[in-house]
Amino acid sequence: MITTVTREKVQVPLLDLRGQWEQIQAEVMEAIHDVCASQRFILGPRVKELEERIAAYSQCRHGIGMSSGTDALLAALMALEVGPGDEVITTPFTFFATAGTVARLGARAVFCDIDPVTYNLSADAVEDFVATQCEPRLGSLVNRRTGGRVKVLMPVHVFGQSAEMDRLAEVAQRSGLKIVEDAAQALGAEDRNGRRAGSIGDIGCFSFFPSKNLGAFGDGGMCTTNDPELAARLEALRVHGARRRYYHELVGGNFRLDALQAAVLLVKLRYLDRWTELRQENARWYDGALECLGLGERLTSPRRLAGYRHVFNQYVLRAERRDALREHLAGAGIGTEVYYPVALHMQACFSSLGYRPEDCPEARRAAGEAVAIPIYPELTAAQRQYVVDTIAAFYR
User: What contacts 126, CB < 8 A, 6 or more positions away?
Assistant: First the structure.
């Protein structure tokens, strides 16, 4: 493998959607034109079709379109009646919305540490928290330290690989917890049993933010469930809690998905599996090329669990001297990003929860070492080689 950086700088952004747009432009413009001609912009038949297709793709009976991935999480927790006095077990190594929606409902996030290999919520950490810090009282699981009712387990399938749902589901079942899957980065991801993200818990939550593997032309999201009662409740919650117009059984919100976004997503959904295959091909190439550098623990590639389908929303390395490496790559025209520079248990807005940095050591370590490099489907062989050559030059 060539390990000399070419003299000519090659621009490699972290994500470049222009190539994708060139593939689908004509179909998307036709779909947008059809929506404009119909003058039906909120919910409607295109949203319904997208709900059915995403539900089927995710091995679920019901899909409920939402205005964003954040609102999907919020509506899911509302549907499960999470509120003051309740607690939600989740990961500190994720986008802010996961825990932010818990706080918005007056509930308390309980942070358990991550698995250092996958970055996902550690089943060991969750089991330990439940076994050592909780006890059953009057049909509920209670956190002995806070007195809060532990009501929901919310794992995140981070970067496109499913969390260890077998063990997490066992803990939830034994403890009487509901499961909300934050699958914002994991549409189409599968565990070792072939179960797709969003189909295993009580409610799955997806994001269609433009940078996602299936991205809209703005914000959008979806909840999935196999429970018809939860589906009906979610449908009501997204329209201010009304099952009939102007008759409000619940206090909900304006969480509706619009028809223009649904139309765009329906076009893109036809390409999603091929785009995922290309991401996986890029990941396999990176794995081999980076291994050839022989950097050992100084730079490690993301680990795929055996039998899992990893959809690589991000390709995240662990890197020695991470920030200096990012600066070096930026100088060479290569885009990177840190997901996530501050673990949630260390965020200032959650200081009242009383966590110390050392309470989640693996999340804290990942925040200092993780860096994402370009993985998008349209990445060329020359661009991939340039990324690896530039990394090699830094560590030489």
Answer: 89, 112, 153, 168, 171
